[in-house]
Design goal:
single chain, 540 residues, 4 domains, 3-stranded antiparallel beta sheet, 5% strand, globular
Length: 540
């Protein structure tokens, strides 16, 4: 059954609880299972991310992780190719979809997971020691932070044919920070660099690297964590948000002792700046021995003089399966569907553990699977502001250098890069499309069609050029269908299609349609505005 009807529906009553007792769980698949999923999702505003569903639910999609083989019922066509690309990139260009269709699904996934050429930033300050410039209220570093955001926005807009930037954002949400707290642009740069260079790398090693990264040490007060005054902030979030999930396999005593194991790490001083403030290494932290608690701690049943890396080893050894399931659920909800299929999660977790915590085999198996390409999963993901706005720009073949405005739009729509709302990251799911944010999405989408944003350089679609390379642009119905095939993840009903046809023709007979007629560009713009306002265009 298509999930569109309950993904696009208004949220239901908030008086119910997803934790209510359901006495009769229907068998996997079928109408009753779909209705139960619909009920649960109608009560959910935010993604559960790595957490288990509060109530066991039947499987809606029964296909497994065997490789997807195209069939007559499930063809490798624009819909499925576009679905794969929209989930793994920030939107799909027509040329990318067309290229994907010349290859097998597995070959396309291999291309998406390959290591691209490392991007080179248009600045070099990230290699210099950081210091606070009290002579000008740190204006230079504030400008550098904006330069970093602009560059990252540009990488999303002009990304390689690679999942790298999508995974970089995924990890930046998993280990969420706020630039207003971290402040230093150098630390923010190297934090992102850690994710970008390890976008499909070793999860356990990433946990270790993040634990002693300057950005995280500052954000969760690790640099203040000493044996005289242990600070529990990072210890708690390490278990609750980064590896296990709230209340899953740890106690308050474990948090207390974990905080002691994490003592002593701080940002690394390197000298004195020209204005008299301290300078700091831009990418490395340091362990100060006299601030470290070098006494025994008991953590998850093990006792010893543990340090930070020992703590992480203990978590991954004692709760191996729980950690694997937690991060696999989060990946599943990001790339497949909000209700995690525990049968699939268990298989992915086994792959992760058998590959010594490397993420690449997990993503390769998932993205190549029958389960991923099942019809019910297509269009089942509510787009983030980045996916919607940058994706629309890319889908419409719009070119621009005004990445600052793109960053500002995505921030206004609820996703400001390097500024997560809190330590949990962005709530995602239905929170992306509240009533006010949906209206804002329509407004900025109209700007893309009309090119009338209050920013320079302005940018927008060239309507006639955009449609002229379609298969038959002078056939109104064929042109509309081609546009929908490239932009919208779900098939339109006959009524929806006729409404779009009316938008294009504005009362004129079909046989008169020709893109070279006077005023044709305006008619195409009206059509494209209507397409981007479709509920289905909010999905991917």
């Amino acid at each position: 059954m298509d999930r569109r009807t309950f993904l696009t529906s208004a949220a239901g009553s908030r008086t119910g609880s997803t934790g209510r007792n359901i006495t009769a769980i229907p068998a996997d698949g079928g109408h009753e299972a779909a209705l139960l999923h619909k009920t649960v999702l109608a009560e959910r505003e935010e993604s559960l991310k790595g957490l288990r569903e509060p109530v066991a639910l039947p499987r809606l999609v029964t296909s497994g992780l065997d490789p997807y083989t195209p069939t007559t019922e499930k063809p490798w066509d624009k819909q499925r190719a576009g679905y794969l690309l929209r989930r793994t990139l920030f939107g799909a260009k027509r040329s990318e979809t067309d290229m994907a269709l010349t290859k097998s699904p597995g070959e396309v996934v291999d291309m998406l997971l390959a290591n691209p050429t490392p991007p080179v930033p248009p600045f070099s300050w990230q290699n210099d020691d950081y210091y606070y410039d009290n002579s000008n209220n740190d204006q230079v570093n504030r400008g550098r932070l904006q330069d970093l955001r602009d560059w990252w926005t540009d990488l999303m807009l002009n990304q390689d044919f690679s999942i790298q930037e999508k995974m970089t954002f995924f990890w930046s949400d998993h280990w969420a920070t706020e630039a207003l707290t971290v402040r230093q642009p150098h630390f923010n740069y190297w934090f992102l660099d850690l994710f970008r260079n390890n976008f499909l790398g070793n999860f356990k090693q990433m946990v270790k690297d993040v634990t002693v990264s300057p950005a995280m040490l500052i954000y969760l007060d690790g640099w203040y964590n000493t044996k005289q005054r242990p600070n529990e902030n990072y210890a708690r979030e390490l278990m609750e948000l980064h590896t296990l999930g709230e209340g899953n396999g740890y106690t308050q005593d474990d948090i207390i002792n974990a905080a002691r194991a994490l003592t002593g790490w701080t940002i690394k001083e390197t000298g004195t700046s020209p204005v008299g403030t301290k300078t700091y290494d831009p990418r490395n932290a340091t362990l100060i021995s006299n601030r470290f608690d070098d006494t025994d701690k008991t953590i998850m049943g093990r006792t010893g003089n543990f340090g930070a890396m020992d703590l992480i080893d203990i978590i991954f050894e004692v709760h191996q399966a729980e950690v694997a399931r937690f991060i696999c659920r989060k990946l599943y909800r990001e790339f497949v569907y909000e209700i995690a299929d525990e049968s699939i999660i268990d298989e992915l977790a086994t792959i992760l553990m058998n590959n010594n915590w490397d993420i690449r085999p997990v993503m390769s198996t998932l993205l190549k699977s029958e389960h991923f390409f099942d019809t019910a999963n297509i269009g089942a993901h509510i787009t983030s502001p980045l996916e919607y706005y940058i994706g629309s720009i890319r889908a419409l073949d719009i070119t621009t250098t005004n990445v600052r405005y793109i960053y500002q739009v995505c921030s206004a729509l609820g996703c400001q890069l390097l500024e997560a709302p809190n330590v949990k990251g962005w709530p995602a799911y239905r929170s992306w499309i509240s009533a006010s944010r949906l209206a804002s999405r329509w407004s900025v989408a109209d700007e893309l069609i009309l090119g009338n944003m209050k920013s320079t350089p302005k940018f927008g679609v060239d309507p006639v050029t955009y449609v002229s390379t379609l298969s038959d642009p002078n056939n109104a119905r064929k042109m509309i269908q081609d546009i929908l095939d490239y932009i919208v993840p779900l098939k339109m009903s006959t009524n929806q299609f006729e409404i779009l046809l009316d938008k294009l023709l504005a009362g004129a007979p079909e046989y008169e349609w020709n893109i070279n007629l006077p005023g044709a560009d305006g008619h195409i713009k009206d059509l494209l505005k209507a397409v981007l306002r479709l509920s289905e265009s909010e999905l991917c």
